[in-house]
Amino acid sequence: MMGWNILKRGLLGAVALAGAASLLPAEAQTPRNTATFLREIDADRYDLHRSTARAAGEIVTMLTDTLVSMDWDGRTIRPGLAERWEVSSDGKTYTFHLRRDVTFCDGKPMTAADVVYSLNRWRDPATRSPVAWRAGPVKEIRARDQFTVEYELNTPFSELLSQLTLFFAGIIDRATVERLGDNFGSQGFNGTGPYCWVSWTPRNELVLQRHPNYRWGPPIFQNRGPAQVERVVWRVIPEPTARLAAMQTGQGDVTQYIPPVAMESLRRVPSITLHTQPNYFWDFFMGFKVNKPVVSDRAVRRAVHMAVDRTALTRAVWFGSAVPARNIVNPNTLDYDAESERLVPDFDPAAAARTLDEAGWRVGPDGIRVKDGQRATFLTYGIATLEGQRQGEIIQQALRRVGIEMRIQLFDATVAWGRLATQEFDAFFLSYPYFSAGDALNLYWQSRARPTPNRMNWNNPQTDAWLEEARSATDPAVRARALANVQRQLAEESPWLTIAREQLFVATSNRVQGVRAHGLYGIGVYKGLDMRIVR
User: Fold this and answer.
1) Could you tell me the CA-to-CA distances from 448 to 68, 454, 492, 506 in Å, in that order?
2) Distance between CA 111 and CA 290 in Å, rounded?
3) Contact 37, 254 (CB under 8 A)
4) Nearest to 210 by CA among 230, 192, 191, 186
5) Is residue 313 left, alpha or beta, with left meaning phi > 0 and alpha meaning psi from -120 to 50?
6) Which regions in the chain score pLDDT beneath 70?
7) Distance between CA 407 and CA 456 in Å, rounded?
8) pTM, full prediction
9) N or C: which end of the chain has fewer CB within 10 A?
10) Could you give the C-alpha distances from 510 to 18, 434, 506, 514, 532, in angstroms and in order?
11) What is the predicted pLDDT for the residue at 14?
């Protein structure tokens, strides 16, 4: 706790640096018509089909476009690369009519063949995309002519258009992918987005340059292109104190990675503006590999729920920039099931101890419980962030009080995703975005999604059947009922502990105007077309 208090004082001290920018030499300031984005962690790669990281998505949305786009409300589908589209009466065929003025960053015109290639690469088993399921039950994607794409499904997929707004569905140049091979997204990129790839220095910075011919931005923007900012630099600053200081001393212009402890103080800084987005779903959780020793016991998993005070934890870690979570999906999402809320265990340490006693876990001489010679200990992996460290410490202490030992290993984001794809741990900390109950549940709970993103190794035929019923339903009531069954099943089995629901805030310096928080897939600044430099 002493270390945390020192860090907290340091963060608040960083906020007190307002006005210091004028004291810095000119070379410390951001260059003219360049916007510097500050973030906490880097992505492992920027191949849109092989990464699920938000850190990848916030870059890829600037580098690519999708057939359709998402409005600020998080629900309404707007045109993108497709000017218009039709859906067949049976819900199985979508016909997209493409714009005819789109080019890649290298100047090559974009046609239906590029769309077909990109979407087929996404769902190709050889790509091994962890989110290939988002493309739906595809029968065939084909080019009817140079500017018309037909997207035919085996069965209806009620959320297809929403899925096609995500960065995984971005359109990329085949020749560039084939030329770079495994280095696509690390040594180069070629998309149709408002910005073009310049360079990437892992764990340091990624540089983008304005796409000069861009004129086809989504209609949600006042400026459809080209981008008004010539150059964007995404700089990684893991230390929260340094990140805050950089924002206030002119070395950073935009960040959504605001240390929660500093949020209220930052509101009072005249050179910083905070933007928020209410239509935003991003949850923090701890998942359990349900086939691993100790955490395979349902009683242990439910006891973890009872041992952790999520209200106090959220207050201690996020300081009002997140709200405590209980159920597996946000109550404000489409197809949320209120009944499942009642099935989630309440915070009750005494009940946690009783649950473990009744399941045969006896307290050993060192305070850690034992059953059939197996100590109640498990290993938890996570990404090395400030929130990850703090929530880990608090949960570790809470579990120790009921006789469970949790060991923690945190990794830099550039290696963490690889470690989280293994079977060498028992539990893990992560956070994730979604736009509906169906989106959240399909991402993590299909058996075919093992070992990632289904890191819980959840393999339940009934879950699969309910998810399939919901995906193919054309009747909203049928879809909602199937998804309610999944939510109730997971609430009773407790394969993960939902901890907190993040609130989206984007901070901008007084050099920058036109930024609006979006929130699609957790991404604060979506494309940045209205962003401009004013100083």
Assistant:
1) 27, 8, 22, 36
2) 46
3) yes
4) 230
5) alpha
6) 1-30
7) 17
8) 0.84
9) N
10) 12, 31, 13, 11, 11
11) 52
